[in-house]
Amino acid sequence: MRARVVRAALALGLTAPLLTGCFEEPSPHEAVRDFLVGWQTGDYAAAARRADGDQAAVRKALEDARLQLDAASVRFSLKGISQDGEAAQAAYHAEVDLGENNPLWQYDGTLPLHLAGGQWKVRWSPSVIHPDLHAGQRLAVATVPKGRRPILDRAGDPLQDETMLHVAGVTPAEVKDPAHLCEQLSKITGFAQDRLLSRILSSPPQDFVPLATFGRTKFAQLKSKLEAIGGLRFEIDNAPVAPKSPTQIVGVVTAITPEAEQRLGGPQRAGDTLGRDGLQKAYQDQLTGSTETRVVILDNATGRQVKELKAWPGRENEPVRTTIDSRLQSAGDAAVAGSRPAALVAVKASTGEVLAVSTNQLHQERDALAGRYAAGTAFSIVVAEGLLRSGLDPKQKVPCSADRTVGGARFQQPGVDGVTVPSFQTDFAQGCVTALASLARRINGQAISRSAQQFGIGSGWKLPLRTFSGSVPAAQGDAAVAKIIAGQGAKVSPLAMALVAGAVKSGTWRPPTLVTSPAAPDPAVGEAGGSAAVTPATLDPAVTAKLRTLMRAGVTSGAAALATAPGEPVYGVAAQVTQAEKKERTRLSWFVGWQGDVALAVLVESGDLQAAPAVAGGFFRGAQPQT
């Protein structure tokens, strides 16, 4: 309510000088000034004193016009006055602010005047308010909200089911005491009484006017109190708002609350539902559009429309089309099911499109897309690109020992007795920490950073939801480089690692895509904004071919063997790492790889190295096309 008062005061400050010039009787100027200033500021009694009609009737007509328009402010500018003896006519321009989220209505009107008892008076009739308004008629604002559009998967199927919403509203013509009704409804719901009342008074009398929307649980709690309000009616809206998997990516829709109403601008809002999180929140405006608004003249007796004075079509709403593959999403959900926290992200290797985001006891957005996890030797994919580019031969013998010190930093490899001398390919496939760390002098921190950039680690890509592209600490000296090679220090999200796998498979790193239309929200919104303009990066074909060989060995003879599945060959690496956060230590199992054009990253909170590869194998088997 405070914003409406301030706006009216500002409007007066801008226009009053136009109305307070050197007005001197016996000209009509003073009458015009007093009438328009009184009307503009809400001093209807002052305006009525300058009219020749019944003052109470004039005062009520002007007040009713403002209520019927639910106007936040009315501003006038004087266009000119013509006088012919004892008659005159003033031309004015009106600007009516129809309220938050509604347009500015402008029109031109006239004030006929005449001398009565030595004073100039406005010759009163309803046409003073608007040239087309006559006796027995009223103004009204007709709004046509649009139903919320769905969020769709890549096949165009909705990612939500219909759910029952209860809409409480009124037909204004049937309400005997709208002020009392709004007072009661406000006490129960918390919605502002004056906004509820203005919505009723400004609507066509025969239209159903929705005032509040409730979900099933909330309606059940308030049903008896709501039904006790005389004149309040209820309608059912079967809205497509119950999210299917991935539920946290799709997001939850709730009935609009008093707090949201105040933030968004009042009851005249496109739809009565609000996205609380996920894509439903990020694309609230696109999914709901904006309300169609019409200023009309109605017949008081019948409530029928006599004339439309102005119409604003509003902004069309549209569905949000995602890249989610519902079949692969189901396979992911089945694969992560169990007792251990897990996250799985699948992307289309050739495009970067997000195909599935599945979690168990973790959050799909906060953890799978935006989690910050220690990468362990899964990060060896990134470092291996730099090592191979520097000339390292995958067949070169690199000792794998139980314990090794590099530059003063100590590294240990569980399960190894003594020292073996396998090839780098075998060290990579088995994830031998000591062997990888020993290569610190073959690559420097600058080269590691370049490789990380090639794979999008730490770059500015974003989705319409929160994401984390990864981070790699600056490395100076053998110990720091060795730690990064061994996966100690680099932080990544499952999404970032799925994109790394996709880059090795396709030969080109691509930023992720989750929504194909409409255009992403404004990046100025923050992390829940639009995708940053990050271009794909083409990898060295010769180096990429060697990386594929290394990752195939990770499945055929390495630690990722449990990811094997029927169909095309599976490529990948497995890793295990301990993450310390706020004095809590968590063991993580990783799998990063692909089958066909589906690149995958799996994270499982488990001390078992094989936990993530086993989930990956379950996903690949479940993702096989049904015959």
UniProtKB/TrEMBL annotation:
Keyword Membrane part of the UniProt annotation: yes
PROSITE patterns: PROKAR_LIPOPROTEIN
Domain Penicillin-binding protein dimerisation, residue spans: 148-309
Gene3D superfamilies named among the record's database cross-references: DD-peptidase/beta-lactamase superfamily, Penicillin-binding protein 2a (Domain 2)
Annotated GO CC locations: plasma membrane
Localisation per UniProt entry: Membrane
Stretch list, region Disordered: 511-532
Family to which the UniProt record says this protein belongs: Belongs to the transpeptidase family.
Superkingdom of the organism of origin: Bacteria
GO biological process, one term: response to antibiotic
Swiss-Prot/TrEMBL keywords: Membrane
An example molecular function term from Gene Ontology annotations: penicillin binding
Domain Penicillin-binding protein transpeptidase, first and last residues per copy: 343-615
Membrane recorded as keyword: yes
Name this polypeptide is given: Penicillin-binding protein
